[in-house]
Design goal:
There is one protein chain. 45% of the residues lie in helices and 14% in strands. With 450 residues, it is α/β, with parallel strands linked by helices. Helix 4 (94-102) links the parallel strand 4 (84-90) and strand 5 (107-111).
């Protein structure tokens, strides 16, 4: 039997599972790697091109909720987006695996597995992976993501185009959900490093205890669980781009260590004394006003000037209102393709509410709302109720022009809808007595006051 030229990685903390799975698959595929420690996946993916990963969802005794598997799936999709991931889970834990499918996993296999089924699923995954890899970076369409026509967003992407061909450090500023990750990836794709790694690190999610080991790596024996030499995220981005998201949330004492790496373009693993040179592009992002943080002594001034050779501000959606409906249409097309429901459309009233909504969570909030609507809508039409925008949210600029009575009515109506017209809960949230809330409901004709 001729083996398929593919590299398969199996990740599981049980040696018997690794052995059994490898024995089945090695008859059909050229290269099989196994890992019993999921923390080593960064190192392995940095050194090898893996086609398919079989990923167990639980790694600690007594923890069977699959959250570790979900976390690892996100990490793998960031480190190696072209790698296809198959989840392995026990019978009865399918719900978490389905969540994994929504996050980009290709399929899942129940343990204990049927050998023929295992081989069949992996072969199919390899075939699909081949199709993905044929789509080279240069063949990606320019319009595969939404930019918009507003002056603010055009200015941001114009700056991105100018800085992309350089190695200058870039600081991206913007509210949550404005597309900082998308812009950082765009800069990488337009750069001379586009064929190398793009490593995304959410600094806000790293606890202080693992900050240094995750970013800088560690030597064997550096601490209790350090059983092997392991590179960190900076080394994983060698020759490519590292995107340090939420840099404003890094504590002051860790900012010093980060500054040393960025300034010296070298990294020293925990437990080692020698520094390793880095050839990387550094992009950072935050939703905080770093100038204010510097003045408040919460962010190092030298680090601030080191990371923002070029500063790019992404506008919020209320600053680019002309892009709101076109963006919603783009997101609908993207999501309907994902769910293979391309015939879905917005009703006119839903589009009106989309245009008027405040979108405090910006693009991320809009995408989540539309995805929910695609799942819930009937007759291939998205209505206002499907978007969960029963009450129109107004931007601060619009509310400045409203009479106080209108603002009060809107505020009460929003709370009532949020609490499904539960009077006790709504009154408590509004800081009113039940009787006072009833009077206002009657005054503004807000539902029954029986």
């Amino acid at each position: 039997m001729k083996k398929t030229n593919a590299t398969i990685l199996i990740i599981d903390d049980q040696e018997d599972i690794l052995f059994a799975c490898k024995m089945v698959l090695k008859k059909h595929f050229e290269t099989i790697f196994t890992l019993n420690n999921p923390k080593k996946v960064v190192e392995l993916l940095a050194e090898n091109e893996v086609d398919v990963i079989l990923l167990d969802m639980n790694y600690r005794i007594g923890f069977e909720d699959g959250r570790e598997g979900i976390y690892l799936l996100k990490e793998i999709k960031t480190l190696s987006p072209k790698t296809t991931v198959i989840l392995m889970t026990a019978f009865g834990k399918v719900e978490t695996a389905v969540e994994g499918l929504k996050l980009g996993a290709f399929d899942y296999i129940l343990k204990p597995w049927d050998n023929e089924k295992l081989v069949s699923v992996v072969k199919f995954a390899v075939e699909e992976n081949r199709k993905i890899r044929k789509k080279t970076i240069d063949s990606v369409k320019v319009d595969s993501f939404f930019i918009g026509k507003s002056i603010a967003i055009q200015k941001a992407y114009s700056l991105a185009d100018k800085v992309a061909k350089t190695d200058a450090n870039v600081l991206i500023l913007g509210e949550n959900g404005t597309g900082k990750f998308v812009l950082a990836h765009y800069i990488h794709q337009q750069s001379n490093r586009k064929k190398e790694a793009f490593v995304h690190v959410d600094l806000g999610s790293l606890s202080e205890s693992i900050f240094e080991s995750e970013l800088f790596g560690y030597a064997k024996g550096a601490f209790t669980d350090a059983k092997n030499d392991t590179p960190g995220r900076f080394e994983a981005a060698q020759n490519g781009t590292i995107f340090l998201d939420e840099i404003g949330n890094v504590p002051l004492h860790l900012q010093t260590k980060l500054l040393q790496v960025i300034q010296n373009k070298s990294v020293t693993r925990l437990g080692e004394s020698k520094s390793r040179p880095l050839n990387i592009r550094i992009i950072t992002a935050t939703n905080l006003d770093l100038k204010k943080e510097v003045n408040a002594k919460k962010f190092r001034e030298d680090l601030y000037y080191r990371i923002n050779t070029m500063e790019i501000k992404l506008p919020s959606l209320h600053e680019r209102k002309e892009d709101i409906v076109p963006l919603a249409t783009f997101l609908l097309e993207k999501i309907t393709q994902k769910y293979e429901r391309e015939e879905i459309v917005f009703e006119e009233k839903a589009l009106e509410q989309i245009q008027k909504n405040a979108w405090k969570g910006n693009i991320r909030e809009m995408e989540n709302r539309i995805e929910r609507a695609v799942i819930l809508c009937e007759n291939n039409t998205i209505k206002s109720a499907d978007l969960d925008l029963d009450v129109i949210n107004f931007s601060p600029f619009e509310m400045e022009e409203m009479p106080l009575s209108d603002i009060e009515k809107i505020s009460i109506e929003k709370v009532l809808y949020r609490n499904n017209f539960n009077i006790s809960k709504s009154a408590e949230e509004l800081g009113l007595s039940r009787a006072a809330l009833y009077r206002r409901m009657e005054k503004y004709n807000l539902g029954s006051t029986d």
